[in-house]
Amino acid sequence: MMTYQPIPLPDRMAYDDDEMVARARAFHAEIHRRHTVRDFSPRPVPRAVIDACLLAAGTAPSGANHQPWHFAVIGDDPDLRRRLRAAAEAEERDFYARRAGAEWLEALAPVGTHDDKPFLEIAPWLIVIFGQRKGFANGKVRKNYYVPESVGIATGLLIAALHHAGLATLTHTPSPMGFLNDLLGRPESEKPYILLVAGHPADDATVPAYAKQKKSLTEIASFR
Predict the structure, then answer these.
(1) Among candidates 70, 65, 71, which has minimal Cα distance to 144?
(2) C-alpha–C-alpha distance, residues 105 and 119, integer Å
(3) What's the Cα-to-Cα distance from 77 to each of 80, 120, 121, 187, rounded to whole Å?
(4) Which of 125, 117, 116 is closest to 54 using CA atoms?
(5) Residue 2's pLDDT is what?
(6) What angle do CA 72, 75, 78 make, to 5 degrees?
(7) ∠68-179-112 over CA atoms, to 5°?
(8) Residue 123 in contact with residue 199, Cβ under 8 Å?
(9) 147-164 helix and 47-57 helix, angle to the nearest 10 degrees
């Protein structure tokens, strides 16, 4: 059993107030340029970029530091991509035709989504993000804690890292997503959360005007 062992805080940052404000505003300006796209270019992206972004995601805080995530990365595998697209589109057709109610479809209308997912075969990288209900340490099975929260934070860091590297992303969430365990050989103890598409946007890529409507600070925050 591991015991608590404090060490001096490494990598300490010390900026004055003006520099903190400048850095915060610069980051907001950069991340404000992030857009979800559905039109991707087949232009290759070096694996080194993906590796570095995944390592950045892996620095996320997590329940008991168990790091309960697994990133299943799909690159140049046309057969796997065809099978994945077919399975995803089958779920999406059922969603739009039967499972999504009128209110949900009305909410999606200004976003312009539909059941055709060509980006699953076009974009150079697909990253399926799994949450691990249990893990292993010292040869023993152990329970993981705060899995959805931990995976959500890591996913946010990954999206920010990919954007910082100059790539566009799409968070695709076909439901249900169990087919991803089968296609990627992941155990039942792992739950797929997001299929993250990453690459360069196509030359004719568009975004819905609706997506540019972001809430103001007063709408998303309160100060006491």
Answers:
(1) 65
(2) 21
(3) 6, 11, 9, 21
(4) 125
(5) 81
(6) 115
(7) 95
(8) yes
(9) 140
- SS3 per-residue string spanning the chain: CCCCCCCCCCCCCCCCHHHHHHHHHHHHHHHCCCCECCCECCCCCCHHHHHHHHHHHCCCCCHHHCCCEEEEEECCCHHHHHHHHHHHHHHHHHHHHHHCCHHHHHHHHHHCCCCCCCHHHHCCEEEEEEEECEEEECCEEEECCCHHHHHHHHHHHHHHHHHHCCCEEEEECCCCCCHHHHHHCCCCCEEEEEEEEEECECCCCCCCHHHHCCCCHHHHCCCC
Q: What is the pLDDT of residue 41?
A: 98
pTM of structure:
0.95
* pLDDT tens-digit series, residues 184-214: 999 999 999 999 999 999 999 999 999 999 9
Please identify every stretch of the chain with a pLDDT value under 70, giving residue numbers as ranges: none
CATH match for 45-209 among 3.90.180.10, 3.40.50.300, 3.40.109.10, 3.40.30.10: 3.40.109.10
pLDDT of res. 137: 81
Q: Is 172 exposed, middle or buried (0-12, 13-18, 19+ CB in 10 A)?
A: buried
Write down the pLDDT at residue 127. Answer: 98
Q: Which of 113, 129, 116 is nearest to 197 (CA)?
A: 129
